[in-house]
Design brief:
Length: about 140
Protein backbone atom coordinates (compact mmCIF):
# COMPACT_ATOMS: atom_id res chain seq x y z
CA UNK A 1 0.00 0.00 0.00
CA UNK A 2 1.28 3.45 -0.97
CA UNK A 3 1.32 5.62 2.16
CA UNK A 4 2.42 8.84 0.41
CA UNK A 5 -0.13 8.98 -2.41
CA UNK A 6 -3.76 7.95 -2.55
CA UNK A 7 -3.98 4.35 -3.76
CA UNK A 8 -6.70 1.72 -3.98
CA UNK A 9 -6.66 -1.83 -5.39
CA UNK A 10 -9.62 -3.82 -6.65
CA UNK A 11 -9.96 -7.19 -8.36
CA UNK A 12 -12.36 -8.38 -11.00
CA UNK A 13 -13.12 -11.57 -12.89
CA UNK A 14 -12.75 -9.61 -16.14
CA UNK A 15 -9.61 -10.22 -18.23
CA UNK A 16 -6.91 -7.52 -18.49
CA UNK A 17 -8.10 -6.44 -21.96
CA UNK A 18 -11.62 -5.70 -20.66
CA UNK A 19 -10.14 -3.79 -17.71
CA UNK A 20 -7.88 -1.76 -20.02
CA UNK A 21 -10.76 -0.99 -22.38
CA UNK A 22 -13.02 -0.01 -19.48
CA UNK A 23 -10.50 2.41 -17.97
CA UNK A 24 -9.99 4.05 -21.37
CA UNK A 25 -13.75 4.58 -21.73
CA UNK A 26 -13.62 7.53 -19.31
CA UNK A 27 -17.12 8.82 -20.08
CA UNK A 28 -18.62 5.48 -19.03
CA UNK A 29 -17.28 5.52 -15.46
CA UNK A 30 -15.88 8.96 -14.45
CA UNK A 31 -17.89 11.72 -16.15
CA UNK A 32 -19.80 12.31 -19.36
CA UNK A 33 -18.57 15.91 -19.31
CA UNK A 34 -15.34 15.23 -21.23
CA UNK A 35 -13.77 17.26 -24.02
CA UNK A 36 -10.96 15.83 -26.12
CA UNK A 37 -9.72 12.27 -26.44
CA UNK A 38 -8.62 9.80 -23.77
CA UNK A 39 -7.67 6.64 -25.65
CA UNK A 40 -4.30 7.07 -27.35
CA UNK A 41 -0.81 8.03 -26.17
CA UNK A 42 -0.51 11.82 -26.22
CA UNK A 43 -4.27 12.44 -26.08
CA UNK A 44 -5.40 15.34 -23.92
CA UNK A 45 -8.82 15.55 -22.32
CA UNK A 46 -10.66 17.88 -19.99
CA UNK A 47 -13.23 16.74 -17.45
CA UNK A 48 -15.63 18.91 -15.51
CA UNK A 49 -17.82 18.30 -12.49
CA UNK A 50 -20.12 21.32 -12.45
CA UNK A 51 -18.44 24.32 -10.87
CA UNK A 52 -16.64 22.14 -8.30
CA UNK A 53 -13.75 20.66 -10.30
CA UNK A 54 -12.29 20.89 -13.77
CA UNK A 55 -9.00 19.34 -14.86
CA UNK A 56 -7.04 18.52 -17.99
CA UNK A 57 -5.16 15.25 -18.32
CA UNK A 58 -2.60 14.10 -20.89
CA UNK A 59 -2.17 10.39 -21.58
CA UNK A 60 1.59 10.00 -21.05
CA UNK A 61 1.99 6.22 -20.72
CA UNK A 62 -0.01 3.47 -22.35
CA UNK A 63 0.96 -0.20 -22.14
CA UNK A 64 -1.92 -2.27 -23.53
CA UNK A 65 -3.54 -4.42 -20.86
CA UNK A 66 -0.88 -3.36 -18.27
CA UNK A 67 -0.70 0.35 -17.48
CA UNK A 68 -2.29 3.73 -18.15
CA UNK A 69 -0.88 7.03 -16.84
CA UNK A 70 -2.45 10.47 -17.07
CA UNK A 71 -0.54 13.65 -16.22
CA UNK A 72 -2.75 16.42 -14.82
CA UNK A 73 -1.66 19.51 -16.75
CA UNK A 74 -4.29 21.93 -15.47
CA UNK A 75 -6.78 21.89 -12.62
CA UNK A 76 -9.22 24.04 -10.77
CA UNK A 77 -10.70 22.65 -7.57
CA UNK A 78 -13.08 25.24 -6.20
CA UNK A 79 -13.48 23.96 -2.65
CA UNK A 80 -9.82 24.36 -1.58
CA UNK A 81 -7.51 27.34 -1.13
CA UNK A 82 -4.95 26.17 -3.72
CA UNK A 83 -7.21 25.61 -6.72
CA UNK A 84 -4.36 23.96 -8.66
CA UNK A 85 -3.56 21.20 -6.12
CA UNK A 86 -3.78 18.52 -8.81
CA UNK A 87 -1.49 20.19 -11.36
CA UNK A 88 1.58 18.07 -12.02
CA UNK A 89 0.09 14.99 -10.34
CA UNK A 90 -0.25 11.65 -12.13
CA UNK A 91 -3.21 9.31 -12.23
CA UNK A 92 -1.94 5.75 -12.65
CA UNK A 93 -3.78 2.52 -13.42
CA UNK A 94 -1.68 -0.65 -13.07
CA UNK A 95 -3.38 -3.77 -14.43
CA UNK A 96 -2.09 -7.22 -13.54
CA UNK A 97 -3.36 -10.79 -13.66
CA UNK A 98 -3.76 -12.40 -10.22
CA UNK A 99 -4.53 -16.11 -10.54
CA UNK A 100 -7.92 -16.21 -12.32
CA UNK A 101 -8.68 -12.53 -11.72
CA UNK A 102 -7.31 -9.12 -12.72
CA UNK A 103 -6.08 -6.57 -10.20
CA UNK A 104 -6.40 -2.86 -10.81
CA UNK A 105 -4.12 -0.74 -8.66
CA UNK A 106 -5.11 2.90 -8.92
CA UNK A 107 -2.68 5.51 -7.58
CA UNK A 108 -3.06 9.26 -7.72
CA UNK A 109 0.61 10.21 -7.42
CA UNK A 110 0.77 13.59 -5.70
CA UNK A 111 -2.60 13.30 -3.96
CA UNK A 112 -1.03 13.27 -0.51
CA UNK A 113 -2.68 13.39 2.92
CA UNK A 114 -1.39 16.91 3.60
CA UNK A 115 -3.35 18.40 0.67
CA UNK A 116 -6.57 20.19 1.52
CA UNK A 117 -8.60 18.19 -1.02
CA UNK A 118 -7.21 14.81 0.10
CA UNK A 119 -10.28 13.74 2.12
CA UNK A 120 -12.90 14.67 -0.45
CA UNK A 121 -10.78 13.68 -3.46
CA UNK A 122 -9.70 10.30 -2.10
CA UNK A 123 -13.29 9.55 -1.08
CA UNK A 124 -14.48 10.43 -4.60
CA UNK A 125 -11.75 8.32 -6.23
CA UNK A 126 -12.69 5.38 -4.02
CA UNK A 127 -16.27 5.63 -5.25
CA UNK A 128 -15.28 5.92 -8.89
CA UNK A 129 -12.74 3.07 -8.83
CA UNK A 130 -14.44 0.56 -6.50
CA UNK A 131 -17.89 1.66 -7.65
CA UNK A 132 -18.54 2.87 -11.18
CA UNK A 133 -15.34 1.57 -12.86
CA UNK A 134 -15.67 -1.87 -11.30
CA UNK A 135 -19.36 -2.04 -12.26
CA UNK A 136 -18.56 -0.95 -15.82
CA UNK A 137 -15.90 -3.63 -16.17
CA UNK A 138 -18.12 -6.28 -14.57
CA UNK A 139 -21.35 -5.48 -16.43
CA UNK A 140 -20.25 -3.60 -19.55
CA UNK A 141 -22.90 -0.95 -18.82
CA UNK A 142 -22.15 2.78 -18.62
CA UNK A 143 -22.17 4.03 -15.05
CA UNK A 144 -22.27 7.81 -15.55
Amino acid sequence: MDKENFSISITTDAPPQAVFDGINHVTAWWTKDLEGNSQNLGDTFRVQFGDVHVSTQKLIELKPFEKIVWLVTDSKINFVDNKQEWEGTQIVFDISPKEDQTEIRFTHVGLKPDLQCYGACSNAWGGYIAGSLLRLISTGENQT
